[in-house]
Amino acid sequence: MSPDTSEPQRPVDRPDEPAAAPRSWPAYTGGPQPVGPPRRGVVVATATLFGLTALGVPLGLLWAAVAPGTPVVKTADGAIYAQPQPEQPIAADGWFSLLGLGFGVLAAIGLWVLLRRRRGPAVLGVAALGALGAALVAWQLGRRIGLADYERLLAAAPEGTAFSKPADLRAGGIEWVFGVLPVPFGNVLLPAFAAAVTYTLLAGWSRWPSLRPEPDPLPDPTLGWPDPDTGPAAGGISWEPAERPAPSAAPEPPGPDAAEPPRG
Questions:
Q1: Residue 19 scores a pLDDT above 50
Q2: Buried-state track 19-52, b at ≥16 Cβ within 10 A, e below 16
Q3: What does DSSP assign to residue 213?
Q4: What is the 8-class DSSP label of residue 188?
Q5: DSSP SS3 for 17
Q6: What angle do CA 33, 35, 37 make, to 5 degrees?
Q7: Phi, psi angles (nearest 5°) of residue 203
Q8: Is the dihedral of CA 171, 177, 180, 182 positive or negative?
């Protein structure tokens, strides 16, 4: 190649053309993504709360289907247990506790996935309150399935008639404080407890400080811009610095074993 011919990859100075603008990346705006106006957040929280509470209907139907009824016998003083120590009431409480724990766990996971742009303490509170509402709905609905037939037999059946009492809770329910303030207690609180614990564990294992998905940060410009063939546009990041230091022009000092030049 002659000295007058430029190399294919060597840039040629052309003063009559404007210099190319330096390559730059858009500014990184880190942090959580916007979640919308406050009014929309209130609407979403309210709809989620009512949606979870409404799920207490299938939960109550499932509990009434799996919880056994308690055999009773009609007497002059009312209905008494057909067995001295029946196990059916304990089984009804156990089934309600297991179903409630499972419901709380699934509710927390569902809200974590569906409301990923609104993760935080507000969704945690909605999950706990919604699970509590679902438990109360499930309890009241499940205990009323077959209750009308039980009361009819209790009032009209002759003495000695054997029938079943529908499932009900003995280890949970609502206690009225001062006759006006309802306070839930016992295993009706288990769904809310399971939802709160599960959501807290998911938040603790989240890789984002804000709990909400955030964009990946752009590379630091001080480390050098990535190569277009291997950088973000091509799916990779180059860690090669932008400029390499020029070699020093000063001669290196002679080694300890180098021979001295002749004097004279």
A1: yes
A2: eeeeeeeeeeeeeeeeeeeeeeeeebbeebbeeb
A3: -
A4: G
A5: coil
A6: 135
A7: -65, -35
A8: negative
Helix H or strand E encompassing 42: helix 38-54
Nearest to 33 by CA among 199, 215, 216, 218: 215
Give yes or no for a contact between 108 and 195, defined as CB atoms under 8 angstroms apart. Answer: yes
Q: Which strands make up the sheet holding 162-165, listed edge to edge?
A: 78-81, 70-75, 162-165
* Domain parsing of the chain, residue ranges: 43-204
For residues 225 and 244, give the distance between their C-alpha atoms in angstroms, rounded to a whole number: 13
**What are the structure tokens assigned to 177, written together?**
């404080």
Helix (H, G, I), strand (E, B) or coil at 44: helix
pLDDT in tens, 148-172: 989 998 888 888 888 899 999 999 9
Place of tokens 């839930």: 184
Instruction: List all residues 6 or more positions away from 51 whose beta carbon is below 8 Å from its beta carbon.
Output: 130
What tens digit of pLDDT does each residue of 134-146 get?
A: 999 999 999 999 9
Encoding tokens for residue 161? 């008639």
Q: Tell me how far apart the alpha carbons of residues 2 and 6 are, in angstroms, rounded to a whole number.
A: 8
**CA dihedral (240, 242, 247, 253) positive or negative:** negative
pLDDT tens digits, one per residue of 50-59: 999 999 999 9
Cβ atoms < 10 Å from Cβ of 208:
12
> Could you tell me if residue 120 is left (phi over 0), alpha (psi between -120 and 50 degrees) or otherwise beta?
left
What DSSP element (H or E) covers 165?
strand 162-165
Q: Quote the CA–CA distance of 72 and 83 in Å, as a whole number.
A: 8
Structure tokens at 204: 């603790």
| Alpha helical stretches, state H, 160-262 | 190-204
